[in-house]
Amino acid sequence: MTMEKGSSNNHQQQSFEVSNIATADSKFFDDDGRLKRSGNKWTASAHIITAVIGSGVLSLAWAIAQLGWIAGPSMMLLFAFIIYYTSTLLSVGYRTGDQLNGKRNYTYTQAVRAYLGGYKVKLCGIIQYVNLFGVAIGYTIAASISMMAIKRSNCFHSSGGKNPCHMNGNLYMISFGIVQILFSQIPNFDQLWWLSSLAAAMSFTYSTIGLGLGVGKVIENKGFKGSLTGITVGTVTQTQKIWRSFQALGNIAFAYSYSLILIEIQDTIKSPPSESKTMNQATLISNIITTFFYMLCGCFGYAAFGDSSPGNLLTGFGFYNPFWLLDIANAAIVIHLVGAFQVFCQPIYSAVEKTAAKRFPDNDFINKEIEIPIPGIVSPLKINLFRLVWRSFFVIVTTIISMLLPFFNDVVGLIGAFAFWPLTVYFPVEIYIVQKRIPKWSTKWICLHILSVACLMISLAAGIGSVAGIVTDLGVYKPFHAMY
User: Fold this and answer.
1) What is the residue-wise DSSP string for 191-233?
2) How far apart are CA 375 and CA 379, in angstroms?
3) 357-389: string of b/e by CB count within 10 Å (b at 16+)?
4) Can you give the residue ranges of every domain in the chain?
5) Per-residue pLDDT for 99 more than 90?
6) Which of 60, 141, 199, 227 is spaced 20 to 30 Å from 54 by Cα?
7) What Pfam family is a match, any one (predicted)?
8) Which pTM value belongs to this model?
């Protein structure tokens, strides 16, 4: 994935300081001395679409099944509008002061520091990194589910449908973790471009297959399934209906959110016109395209399966023909999540390693690169012991937690709920108020805070629903013994 949700263009932080050259020749350099940016509304739109369309799309049919034909699509449209609007608020935070000539803020945290400062900077950082950590867990679970789906599909067909093919998911999570330990030794985000690009292609592959299979299932059923109010009480209890409806909001929020990387995408845009103006156009274009695609996937998935829509759309088609197409889709998910995991975790890796190097500048364990010559390759392999130990430990911890909580929908809903209000609404609203100097208690000030409080309520409801789902699942689950 070129820029998956929560990614960080660390290479931009390492650009050469060439402000003296920029003064002499502004044809090649921008006002901050960095190489001239060339992005426009179309490239920015592409970044957003690539970042947003990921594994979250697989849970949308389930989310609509909890809410029904009326509330489900309505909530998807509402989230699309909120995220579009708050993105336009956040875009003004790219520059401090004047939108054409003000000082640039290269990351979300820098924008928060420039406009809000104080404890809010640390709060933003904590929320960012906890969210990235949660996504790593969610992706480990999702990857294992897809690997098992491939194995079970082949088992089912080889036995002629006689073997239920139950299996333990832990082996697949461990396998995914081993692969991530290897890829985590790639030093920084710059060197992941090939893995990121491959992941982007895979996300569109499995999303399109899911949509196509949903359409085919509707045609096979000769009609749409589902109801106006979603899954009925009786199929689930009244309490479960409420919790699941709340959890569905978190799943939708997870599928749409990209605020975490908006400022970094904006930092690729050329000016004039102002970056915020171009970014707002890109946000509108990408939101329309993403919402249209999501509505198709979510609605056709619900129409195909009705109230029994699965938490992961691609696992709901069972092991029926064309099983080879489902195998391709699930393989695409695994490949995508291998890259997406790295894109989300590199900012965490970088933050810890830079902090350690700054605190212990003379420590060889932390700072020394060991070069290992490889026959036939010009450049030797460079290994840093601290990077090897710390990143391996991080992957092991995420893998263990995934094995303890292998509940895809619950985890995705919790991540979406946790990040939605602070990162998508609260900080953008506060930055906009400071940047535009909106008077306290003015009509616009009050309206913005009403929006913020309303979205806080949505986040809390989604979080409570997801936690309730996890607690319910844990009641019948034996740790490390999950069978599928």
Assistant:
1) GGHHHHHHHHHHHHHHHHHHHHHHHHHHHHHTS----SS-SPB
2) 10
3) eeeeeeeeebeeeeeeeeeeeeeeeeebebbee
4) 10-475
5) no
6) 227
7) Aa_trans
8) 0.76
